[in-house]
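Handout, tutorial session.
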Amino acid sequence: MAKSIVSAVVEKLGSLMMVPEEIKHNVGVALALEEEIQKMTTHFQDIHSVLQDAESKQIQDFNVRNWLKKLKDVAYDVDDVLDEWNTAKLKSQLEKEQKEVEDFPLLKKIRYSISSFTSHSILYYSIASKIKGLNEQLDCIATEKERYRLGLEKGVEEPKRQITASFINEEEVYGRCQETTILVNMLVGENSNGGGASLHVISIVGMGGIGKTTLAQLVYNHNDVECHFDKRIWICVSDTFDEIRIAKEILEAFKGETPNLAGKDNILKQIHSHVVGKKILLVLDDVWTEDATKWEQLKISLKYCSIGSRILITTRNERVAIIMGTATANLFPLPTLSQEECFSLLSHRAFYGRKREESEILKDICRKIAEKCHGLPLAAKIVGGLLRLKRTREQWQSVLDSEIWGIEEAERDLFPPLFLSYCELPSALKQCISYCAVFPKDKILSKDELIKLWMAQDYLKGVRGEEMEIVGEEYFDELMMRSFFQDFKRVEHDNGILEFKMHDIVHDFLQLLTKTECLVLVNDGFQEFRADSSCEKARHVTLIGKELVPTDPAICYSKKLRSLLIDSSNHDTSSVSTFLPKLFDQLTCIRTLNLSGSLFGNSVDELPDQIGKLVHLRYLNLKHNRKLKELPESVCELCNLQTLNLTWCDSLKELPHGIGKLINLRHLDNEWTDVSLMAMPKGIGRLTNLRSLRVFVAVDGGTNSGASTLGDLQNLMHLRGHLKISGLGVCDATEAKRAELQNKKGLRSLILDFTISKGLMPETWLRRDDGRLLEALQPPPCLEKLEIWCYNSTTIFPNWMMDLTKLKHVSLCLCFHLNLLPPLGKLPSLESLYIGKMRRVEKVGVEFLGVEREEISALSSSSSSIIAFLSLKHLEFCDMEKWDYWIPLKSREEEEHISIMPRLCSLTIDSCPKLRTLPGYILQNTSLKQLDICQSPILSDRCRKETGEDWLKISHIPSIIIDGLCVQVHCSSIEEFGVLQLQPLQRFSYISLLVSVQFTVNSSVGHILILKLGLNYLKFFLCLKILLQNCHVIRICFFLMLFPFAFKFAIIVFQTPLQHFIGILAMSLFYSAEEDIT
């Protein structure tokens, strides 16, 4: 990590030389500034040459580790000085541009120039003094380098890698039965001879110490594997992929003696002759290389073996597995041991040689110690071996109370395998993964937020102008593939990663590397933060506590903080407001500040003007501060700010008028602020670096001259991801066309909300014509999700609609005047469609399918066919009060030539009281897996089990739910279930398999106690009033979501104190008007 910091500082030092000559002359003479800068550059370059050696030695050499800490401290201080200068130059440039724009008299401009020159001379003098002082510290560090005999990079010695063999004592292995069975089946099962290719590659992937080699040994020695293969070969690859050594070992396995051959070509020819016609298993254990060329020739020599041959690889890096030719289906990510398996392994080692009575006395504490190993076999073995030597309960208690990284045996034996993975990282990735030590253990981390935090620390260095966010994505993927991250929560439709965690042992290892640099400080309500003067050098801190007070030593000592993350889930952030002015006076070097509140009412009420002093700040998170009504104008002095998160600040009335000065702002995350936000300030169009803008509140420029109009979106060409435009009801088509949405190629999701702005009279709604406006709001052709709300026209079919060939998700809602659905069946990629509150739609016919009558007529005289809704999987109609007829195809000939919704999986009909029946192409759809009919009495009667007129036509559908009653389930396992009334669940035979339950109408859920303890996701949707009482199950539920749809009308009453729900990891309340939480 030190290497990357030093590299960045050397690069930035050059910027200090680019100053006006007159200032150099004025200050440089006294302090020999240029010589000092050159001296510092030389020092850093000299030190840089030995840093890889130093970083490799730090894990086992305390003195080297301490030397690196000193070096990082100085490098951080230099970086702060350089950033101070660069910020001053940037602010000067902005002020100069502003003065040029404004109409100032010449005399005032001259006075401004003189004042600017004077202030910069003073600043540069201050910077020069700091550089001189830091150089003196560097002199000492450079001298110490020689004392520790740190060599050049080519002389680096990493921790030795263990040489493995195929032999294993299975009595020493606990768990892994299921994994062994799966892998054996992959090697010898029915599909082992399939696929056409003679040689398949299977890879076991996982972090160091998780048991990859052990599993490979179990599989290698399994009786079925021995019988299946003609020849089994075990090669320990380890550090360097020496293809000649590996080839010789393979040949030796066939010949029974060491081959006396020279030249790789001769060896490969011999291998080829031995493998022809034989079914072989080749295990390559502990593979690290990412150089595909080293592997290709060896693989070619093996390709003429018999069909069913296998190569089994173990590696820490998924990228290595892919390079070695592993198909996605053959990747085997190895999980940790279960808690019980980990306990068995640890107790086997710890109790070895003890009397049974002695072991029984220590069993309870042994189980608690096993929990600290978090399923990592290597940790269980090492700690178990340590406990074997400890005789008393007090000694065992001491181990339990220690951090893993504080145990000498763990540092010596457990961390070196992890350190090997760390050493393999490029220096930039070492910074990124080390920063993760600032988060608490077991914290669920957001991938996007982590990338923004890395960006704020200047860790993301692109090449050839590459976007920092793209670099961050690449860094994250690299660390993920190298098994540093786990427990991924993925996006439902595209499998992208939303959230993740780190294994606790990895976290412990990172804390060892960053001991005083990254701190997690805890106040549990009974003691103050565990902080002292050692915090003075801390750079990144997370505060966790029930209450924060102005005298917290964590704040008083840590004046050089670059990150302050206040964990709002454990304390009342409203207490922070009282000492924010003092805090901002202290944090002169801060780059990342998280003051997010919570949805449960904790909130920063007011942000003081002193925030403008935080000139280094890049990341400001104010998420969930629901009492915050305004931001001070001084926020606009933060010219380095890259990320401003205002999500769920739903009392915020306006953004600062000078927001246009935040020229480096890349992410304005303001989702849900349009609940209260009246308009966007005029300067929004100057933020040309914006990558994400979640909400834009449109206004009529004629009535609000101080606000941005739609046309101000024109220059925001880098916008990507999601954008919601609200208040469109007051805009005109000319202004909408100026926004040039079609040129914003990065947009993937767009919500067009045609509601009128707050305070306007209803007649504005009645006068407007949204058809022309929608036509002008043409999105880019790469759009994947489109939602249209409150559209005010009788038809909704803009010319650009059919150009959206990548559109996957469409939602049309609250379009009260619409009487005809658009021809969405023509969209080739559409996967989910929601249509709700279309109160004038009476019939749905072929126009909805996108099939023209002329096309139907032409089909009768040809052999061609039409497919409508080619990719549609999920279809939902909700609150269609006049819809009475879903028109079927008219003739058998039409049915033969028109294929409709061939991939449809689920259909929901909710609150469609007049709908009489479903068309034949739905009733006969063989792909349909779930049919849910709710509050649609005519349709419900026709589909009633056994007695309904249409029952025989729909009885092939596996899951049918009618008015909350699960009338049919044809499946052996089910994990998710949506219900309207809880009572029927008591008769549901698969209740023990549920892990996710959704309630969708008013319910008192006292009967929730019938649910089994496997439940981990509970969702309430469209519930006007929810009464949670005596809900023991909720206490073990990981995710509790309460989601009244898009309006403030929910009342949530917790009769059990919320703090008792200790198992909940995430709880979301969307648009709740009031929460009575005790």
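The second record follows below. Compare its token runs with those of the first.
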Amino acid sequence: MYIYVKMYAQFKNFFFLNVSPLVKLGQEKILEFDDLLPSPEEIKINRDLKVKPIDLSSQKKFMFALLMEQKNLVLKAWAFYLLGIFSSLSTPLFVNLFITRLTELTKANGGGIYHILPVAIGIGLIGVFIGIGYQHNFYSILLANLKIIARLNRLIFEQALKLSQKARQNVNVGDVVNHMSSDSEAIADFPMLLGDLGWASILLIGSVSMLFYYLGWTALVAVIILAVLMPVTRKIAKNFIHLEDEMMQKRDRRVTLMSQILQSMRLVKYFVWEKEIEKQVALVRSEEVSARKKLAKTEMLSGLSFVAISTLVLFVSLTLHVLRGQVLTPALVLTCVSLFGLMQEPIGHLPGVLSRLINAWVSAKRIISFLNADTVTEDLNVELSTVDSIIRFNHLTYKIDGSTFSLRNLNLEIAKGSTVAIVGAVGAGKTTLLQLLLREVNPSEGSIFVGSNKLGYVSQESYILNATVLENLKMGRTDLSDEQIQKALFLSNMDRDILNLPGGLLTEIGEKGVNLSGGQKQRLSLARCFLQETEIVLLDDPFSAVDVHTEKFLVQNLLFDAWRDKTRIIATHRLEALEKFDRILFLENGEITGDGKLGDLMENCPGFKYFFSHHLDIQGAESDSSLDKILTAKDNLPESRLMTDEDREQGAVKGSLYWDYIKALGGKKTNQKMIIVFLGVGVLLVSIFPLMTQWWLSWFPAHPERMMPIHGVMVYGLIALISLCTQMANQIFWLQRGINAGIELHDSMLSCVLRAPVRFFDSTPVGRLLQRFSRDLEAVDIQLQWSFEAAVRCLFQIVVSLFLIIVSVPFVLVVIIPVGWFYWKFQLAYRASAREVKRMDSIRRSPRYAHFKETLNGLPVIRAYKKQSWFREQFFDLLEKSQKASVNNFLLNRWFSLRIPFIGGIVSGATAFSLIFSVHNNLLTPSVAGLVIIYSMSFWGALNWGIRILSDLESRMTSIERIRFMTQISSEIDVFSSSKTTVDENWPSRGHIKFVEARARYDDSLPEVVKGLSVEIPASAQVGIVGRTGAGKTTLFQMIYRFINLHSGTIEIDGIDIASIDLETLRSRLAIIPQDPTLFMGTLRSNLDPYSRKSDQEIWKVLRDTELEELVLGFKLGLETLISDSGANLSQGQRQLFCLARALLLDAKIIMLDEATASVDVVSDAKIQRVLRQELKGKTVLIIAHRLGTVADLDFLMVINEGQLESFKRPTTEHLLASEFGLLPT
């Protein structure tokens, strides 16, 4: 019984019967992910932490090692491939045997009808064996493909988890994501491509051997021609390597640029860079398109050259055969046609196979380079011999490449349980010291010893996951109780904030914490740190974005109470609590010039004394007061689920979508309809010419009395030449139109995305948007026009084949009509499931890449908490889900493709029997019957290819669906439109701002953020804006920039309602320094003045004003110094100062600063405030700040509470201490 059960299971697997319930379900409903079949055991991911090493010494060894790891699946695939190959090679033999016996049937003394019936049965069965062989090969090889992708993805992910800071500065996130997507997929095709090379070689050798059998030594000429012309393919392949590499570089450059743009859209809109960015992207895009054209033309000409070679070989062979005086019979000619058709397939596919092999080779080089990149030190911690010490630096020196800055000769021991504050000016080396402790950077000289592996780290730029608040807090810990979480929220002063969030702890946080304020992000990071098991806590300026009241709460309750038993090291610019620390390290220009308690440093360290005394001068009022009584505001955040799910169309691809693409192919010109007609006519001619050629080859040998054989061969040569030229013209035309369609769709999508409202970017993951500009656009650029052309051509070929068969043997309709009806229903059932599974396959890729990108952005935090395994498990879950969708896609394709040969076999067999009947009754000649049988034998292939290419086209059209969705985004109101109100070029000339009963909300379904605000800011006034976190301070700036539109009330600037001014004019007349400092990959100059509008003198003046001149002069390349992705090679404070300099270059009448100096020391802050007062006289300046010292000397102090104006007065000492400001002594 067990044997029968096992045999039945094997039978089901062999015919993919387990897929049938899924197909049936797809007819009844729209398939969802949970409906999919489970993945086969052989591709399930082994989550063992030990990653098997792989040879990275060369591309050859690397690729071979990957191949050998999948040898069982690959050998099984190749075994089935051989079945399909040898079945294909038998096709010409059956054609020859069939025509020969049909000819004998017409003779008086020929064989009987029963002599040919076994041949007809063989013709019906041969396609079945070809189908079984090829489809099982595809299935096994695609499973191997998925396993290689998983293997490469894991290698890349593991390497990414270990990347050093130096390595991260030399790569950008876009490139690394490409390694995981495009490069991994290219390499995973290697086993399949090797099989295709073997397939091509065997078919060519077998075909040439049979040519020798049928043509004798004439076939030797064919071999010589092939041998002479084959070097052309090597030259094409060599050129292809160069063009492929060039194209990939251009693509990566554009994708990297788009990645930076999409991550910084607020900055783009603040500075009104949309038009310049469009031009910049258009320039990079034009270079990419140019490279793609060269590559596509090379591939196209390569394919046509192979077709030309096979045509030339057949022409020369037939010519020589006639010249030798040999007889040309229909059986011989049609057998040769079948053989050369067999040869033409591998020859035609060779360019594509070679190009993909080259692509895989280039991708292997890129991945090997990444896998060999510098990594962090694995052995982080050791036990110290000194019991009381937990950290020790021995003669440590650290130098930064390309900069004069260095940390020099650090000798340091830190006791267990102590509190250490690291202070100093911006760029003194505070963050670098923490990075050395984390081993994110390695010392140039000396050594570091850390006596614990339980580190907690709160980075200067908060690392927030695109997940719920609870998931951000836990970060993988499953053993936390509700009481522990509540305690963490209380100690981080987040408990009231959580109560005001729409979904509480289950509120989803957007990418990089986009829907949290800076203070909330820092406090969330502190709460997370408390919940992790730590012995050493490293804090990098953790209070820069919180108000004084909150800072005092955190210092008292968290830093010096809840963490009292831990070793705490904090780099800070907030000096109010220094007297509480056991030890203070004062850094000046990379050296520790002060080390001790506060009193000791004040006595013995002049540099620190000046630094701290200056702080006391400017913070005096703040030391005795706080913002206690400013009421805690509601956060006014968007709904709990901020990030939108990726849109997935359901059902068949809409006809309007095809028409949209057809119109894009036709272009925007007046002759669009004519171009579309030409595209269709071109494909029709390409489909008809092969029939004309083969009809001629079947006709003239059968009528030697009407035409000399040599003349018949010459006519064939002429028809073949015309056919080749038509094919070339058709492909060039489609190529050009396809590229034009890609350009049009890209430009339309870019324009719409750049003009989308800010809320769209807050609710849409950057990874998803980047997919539209990378993978989806690549499908449109490269694959879609060929899929479209192939689908149309295949449709014409099926019609031509049916026409030939039905005209020749009309009574075969008795079989074709029911079989056709069954086929129609069959393909409808298949496509209903296949299109949904393919969409799921596409959609399931994005979360994997988004998670990987998020991991790359938080490596220091992840490594500090030892959370690599948690992120790894999440990645594996996403990878398994993605591969589950891919496997189901493969299974559905195999289920369908394995059944089509049986339908084709019925048609071929019925046609063969009908031809026998027709020839036997003199209704048809054997030569025409031979032509018909060739077309009938290829009919099942055309049917299979037709549906496969149609399904492929549908899947490619999903890229158009997603791109079209981007082109239908609602744009910001009045973006770049003509002004309703014309303003003077010098507007605003005074900078007078007036809010009149202004009310605003993020969305119509959400509560008000600002509630009836009325205030008048005098021209040229400098105003400080204060209030608790979430009170609505930053919202005021967003209202002025019209990121949020008022639903009632007005905002006027110089007496003009800003709602009546177009956004380009409005935003270009304002300047802002946002809370999150954003720099792009490029030079320092390009970051300060991206579009070269300012002179060097103006740039250097601003650098002097912002205390950056000395720093830039210290760079070897000065203004041409390269800035890493997101400014990673600069400190947070330096990035903020450069962003300040960039805004000051605009010379706007109204300037807004949103915590712009939060990450700089108080001395630098004071200098900057002096610059703002001196250099910005006559300008209106609005400053959001948590340091009262920052706003104490301004003209007015605006207190915001729960979106309402609490007060607006001059910030005198009396007023600062007055209860009406809510500033009571503590």
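Points raised in discussion: The longest helix spans residues 868-920.
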